[in-house]
Structures
1.
Amino acid sequence: MSSLCPLLLALALAAIPSAQGACPVPGDLKKPDGTRTCARLYDKSDPYYDNCCRGAELSVEPGADLPFLPSDWANTASSLVVAQRCELTVWSHPGKSGKTRKFSAGTYPRLEEYRRGIFGDWSNSISGLYCKCY
């Protein structure tokens, strides 16, 4: 029975869907010409991770400093991916004011899972950003 437990555990872990879902891998954030992208924001997320990182996309260049997001992107992002060796700092109000959070390299398919204060989360709450790469 003890040799069966590791096998069952391996099968159970293989059956769990990855938290990444349909989101790109941070190492794949590049433009068609091969130049680097610092982060990519998406306007769609879903309770099912496989349906996240969909819809409209906003690609952010390394060194981008946007205290005011374009009007169609203010308080719209609900999924994001930060490239390897990069960091995305976001603010909840225009002009780099309000709550702030730093997202390190990685995939964040549901910003609803990241707290913004006691009662809020970061889904549809990003109004300004700064992205840097090392």
2.
Amino acid sequence: MINIMIVDDQPLVREGLGSLLNLREEINVIGTASDGEEALEKALDLLPDLILMDIRMPKVNGVEGTRLIRENIPFTKVLMLTTFSDSKYIFEALEEGASGYLLKDMPTDTIVQAIKTVYHGGVVLPKDFTSHVLTELRKTKGIDEGSFTKELPSSIDELTSREIEVLKLLGNGLNNREIADTLFITEGTVKNHVSNIIQKLEIRDRTQAAIYAVRYGITTF
């Protein structure tokens, strides 16, 4: 059973999505909140496994809410919900520790599968994520897509060819089991590779590894 919270400023979204998800035997909606500040207050008491967090909310938005949750309850994972593909906020939320994002109008089955993926250590990045992020980065950093994806940090040279393969699959949102199946190796070996990647690239966690892969176009290798 995966215990989750739903954070959204619209009561109909909270109640509607909560009712749909509670129909699934593997999901237990243990609470709701209307913004990031209330989410932290309730999460400190309820200790959910995962929070579905809207990005745009009054008072404390989803980006700041994600930062608060990840700083204070690091074992609680955050999956962003949005009604539009806003690369700037999505990217900021991922950098604050969110494990991916979904559009609110996605089918319930897709949302449930995403919850399971994140719960088991995966990252959820819709396939059009790369283009949105690169578009935002071009606007904010003044770098064209071609040069941005080629100018890799020197730290990438520390990775073995197998670790680069694992990093690429992390950038595509695969969890350890899916990476193991793709590369025909054990999950334990994947975990070792992920740990090495995090250490060598000096990043925080596997979500940051996925962002790294997207940021530098490693998913296109």
3.
Amino acid sequence: MTRLQAGSVVDGFVVGPRVHAGAMAELYRVTYDGGRPDPGFPMVMKVPRMGGGEGAENLVGFEVEQQMLQVLEGPHVPRFVAAGDLARLPFLVMEYVEGRTLQSLLDEAAAARQRPAPEAIARWGRAVALAVHSLHQQNAVHQDLKPANVLLRADGRCVLIDFGLSWHAHYPDLLAAEMRPAIGSPAWMAPEQVVGVRGDPRSDLFAIGAMLYELATGELPFGEPVTQGGLRQRLWMDPAPPRALQPACPPWLQEVILHCLEPEAAQRPPSAAHLAFDLAHPEEVDVGTRGQRTTRTPWTQQLRRWIRAAGLQYQPSPQPSERVGEVPIVMAAVPHHETTDAGLYALRQAVKRSLGIRPGARLACVTVVAPGIQDDEAALHRHHGEQLRQWARGLDLHGHQVSFQVLQAEDVAGALLAYARANHVSLMVLGAATHGLALQRWIPTVPARIAAEAPCSVLLVRDAPPLALLGQPAPA
């Protein structure tokens, strides 16, 4: 390809300095020509390499990325500006995102010969998971997540870039039609991608697990295979447990990482929102033998997996947005005062019904207490946490992850709403207020405010209709 010259004009854009030269494309800073005001953010032009030595996948990938950027929305993808004519000079103009790639953080850790703190790994991983969740909600799967394609802004949010290998449920899969069966970057590619299955959102979770593994250990879980046989090993092999390479890796982090790297997609976290929840609440991660291991899986078990993988038929998953909807995070707002046994029972029954029609859903049991005046806040949390566990003992939680959260806040509704937003809750179940009815006209009750402001569906539960109270005069 011909390198663009700084100062030249291309379809109304003034070309600035080149900021990146990769194997697939080059990036140039650009501005509008003729004094036209910029769109409110810096811009970059991406031009694919199409010389004699480049493969056809460069142009196909360019078409895919052009298609994806025009339909994806939100803060986790660069904003689309314009596209060039494929017959003349193909290019994409998009938002230039200020931030650091995850690869630069890995390089920095390698140079310092020191692994990032588990808290930092969890924070970065959660940011990536939330960005991926946003894609999946829009029926898109990235399919090429790796540290170089993850940008972290100064405010901690993540932006995903390079959608040339991506998949969208509503558009033709040009790559599957025209390219090799295994599409992706070998070090981070999920087992189902190796055998040619595209469009499963859990493939992105595998890639996040591979990135977390490298952050925690400094090594890639499966190396960088260059042959089909090397790629296929991940269909049955487990990587070395992170704690075998870095004993300081906490069991909860290893549990999360190896959960993402399960060979079968169905054994991984149900959604990116579930993964983000675990990384935000490490104390709630259910650590089993997977998180405690310090040795590799025995060869006899690897052999059984190899035999099973030889005959395994991978099936496409439902559309990403449907998959997300099938495994929601359900939040039960459990009061600890101003309630009755009948109210707690009705709330438990409503949660039981909600979980019964949502196999694989995660349950977050949350209560809000006023900031305590006592010194021992840990004792306060233990007391109310145990109350939550007692309330949940009547639920059938088989097949459901569950967590218990005690929040301290004066503003009960505000705390519940903030928790629901931060953890991408899909359904909140809470008791409908039967007190303060005389003031409802002027001061909204907690359920009324939540119903009006919640970022999710809300199910209000009554233990008994408060009709008798409606006709009573307000107390003096």
4.
Amino acid sequence: MEKTEKEKMIAGEFYRATAKELMVERQYAKEQLFQYNNLEPSKIKVRNQILKKLFGKTTSRFFIEPPFRCDYGYNIFLGDNFYANYNFIVLDCAPVTIGDNVMIGPNVSLFTAGHPVHPAPRIAGWEFAKPIAIGDNVWIGGHAVINPGVTIGKNTVIGSGSVVTKDIPDNVVAVGNPCRVIREINDTDKMFSPPFFH
């Protein structure tokens, strides 16, 4: 039996996003996020309930500052104690898996979606998606972009404005465009923390 466009999308194969099923699901996410982004700031529990229904996985401890945007929602899997600042964008055509204790700065974008380099298949409407994985205890600085297929290791810091095109290992600081590792994180970094971390 031939795969649906949604099955192709999640499997990382070329697919057409104009398929009716996908268009309906994106429209549903837009409607939910319209409510989310336009609620009064005090309506935290109501906002979180919207995301709990939309996302593939959440816990009781997460906070995403509105406005927030995503394509589908069901491909987003949040670990515990997650925080994202304003203007968080997730193109979740493939799974986006985020570990525990992750912090996301303002204007960060996670892009699982990609398009052919050659214009002919791109114009014909073909696209693809590759999963993104972010490990535990990661901090991603403002205006960073995470590209399709990238894995970021645990305890790592991604500097603001970085464009991450390749996997980043555990326990490092990585910055730049394209993003690259500049050093490992070690115990001397505790000197820049409050005293109770020493």
